[in-house]
Amino acid sequence: MQPNTDEQTIHEFQNSLLSWYEHNKRDLPWRQDQDPYKVWVSEIMLQQTKVDTVIPYFHHFMTQFPTPEDLAYADEEQVMKAWEGLGYYSRVRNLQTAVKEVVEEYGGKVPEERTSFSSLKGVGPYTAGAVLSIAYEKPEPAVDGNVMRVFSRIFNISDDIGKAKTRKRFESLVAPFLEDTEPSRFNQAVMELGALVCTPKSPGCLLCPVQEFCEARKAGTAEDLPVKPKKKAPKAKDMAAAVVKNEYGQILIHQRGESGLLARLWEFPNIEVPEGRERIETLEHYLAEEYGVNVQVKEPVQKVEHVFSHLIWYITVFEAWTTDSTADDTASRWVSWEETAEYAFPVSHQKILEEQKEKEASSWI
DNA sequence: AATTCGGGGTT
DNA sequence: AACCCAGAATT
């Protein structure tokens, strides 16, 4: 069953897969209906993120921002807070930008045309296909990691799925399978099969509803597919962070810039310590230079290790005191421990926040 | 075409 | 530790 699959075989494949799907699909919150806005939000959350992780965020997000209008007009700070801990934060900023455009340019209705929908921020080839097929029953391929895994095995294809060209090959490969079926069900069925049966390691071929169509199973290559690019080891960075306190029981927090890592999130003032430099000196100099506060930095109070996809932070946390706390500006504020709850922090700095807040509370006894 | 962007769960 | 995840934007 190499590319150029006859109609009869495709029809049998669809029947076997869809029958399995109806009996085995998970009852997920974004499968209650085909509301385009809900489907869209779920697809953005699910990018590079597991279903189990997304579920609680999805519930909360839809309660807080039930309609495109609610999200479009929401305060960016609250939107970021709703995404706190989910990662890849540009997703939610792009989503709000895109939803604003839908409200302003399309009267609040998610566009049905691929060209229109694809032009929105954060909507790539996969998300466009997923939303248009699931919400509007458009026969559009929605090729994600699951789909490439399943079809690389079905057709025994060893192209590197990290290449952009490979995704296009799978899109044209999947296209004929979307004929004479419900695109919403078919696309979700392939992904569900990839998530539950045709898994990356030790795939459940014996339980697979389309095992008779699978070339990799015949060839014994299922475990070796798909072929993926090798990933580089994350790069280590030595960081120093400060919990700066003033005489009013407040602490200093800082908002990260518009772009780059953890953009727009709040954090404790921190700086990378170059190899061979003293942490305390580097930190004191930075606090004076960047925030205009003269502080006395004491011994380290905490160590935090945080792993990202492409780097590792080794953060040494220091406590610091000042009596010349500067005025708030747009990127930095003096807040009480209670007020930190209103701000979105990356998990790395949540670790600092939790431990230092706890320490503060116990010192009152 | 390669790199950047998070975080958590498996193996 | 390495791998993987309903990827997209940027370089």
From TrEMBL:
Residue span(s) of domain Nudix hydrolase: 234-360
Biological process (GO) annotations held by this record are: base-excision repair; mismatch repair
Note whether 4Fe-4S occurs among the keywords. Answer: yes
InterPro entries linked: A/G_AdeGlyc_MutY, DNA_glycosylase, Endonuclease3_FeS-loop_motif, Endouclease-III_FeS-bd_BS, HhH-GPD_domain, HhH_base_excis_C, MIG/MutY, MutY_C
Stretch forming the signal peptide: none
| Known cofactor(s) | [4Fe-4S] cluster
Which terms are listed as keywords in the entry? Answer: 4Fe-4S, DNA damage, DNA repair, DNA-binding, Glycosidase, Hydrolase, Iron, Iron-sulfur, Metal-binding
Q: How is the cofactor bound?
A: Binds 1 [4Fe-4S] cluster.
Q: What is its EC number?
A: 3.2.2.31
List, in alphabetical order, the Gene Ontology terms for molecular function in this entry.
4 iron, 4 sulfur cluster binding; 8-oxo-7,8-dihydroguanine DNA N-glycosylase activity; adenine/guanine mispair binding; metal ion binding; oxidized purine DNA binding; purine-specific mismatch base pair DNA N-glycosylase activity
Q: Does the keyword Zinc-finger apply?
A: no
Q: Which reaction does it catalyse?
A: Hydrolyzes free adenine bases from 7,8-dihydro-8-oxoguanine:adenine mismatched double-stranded DNA, leaving an apurinic site
PANTHER family for this protein: ADENINE DNA GLYCOSYLASE
Protein family according to the UniProt entry: Belongs to the Nth/MutY family.
Functional description taken from the UniProt entry: Adenine glycosylase active on G-A mispairs. Base excision repair (BER) glycosylase that initiates repair of A:oxoG to C:G by removing the inappropriately paired adenine base from the DNA backbone, generating an abasic site product. 8-oxoguanine (oxoG) is a genotoxic DNA lesion resulting from oxidation of guanine; this residue is misread by replicative DNA polymerases, that insert adenine instead of cytosine opposite the oxidized damaged base. Shows a powerful dicrimination of A versus C, since it does not cleave cytosine in oxoG:C pairs.
* Name of the featured protein: Adenine DNA glycosylase
Q: Which organism is it from?
A: Salibacterium halotolerans
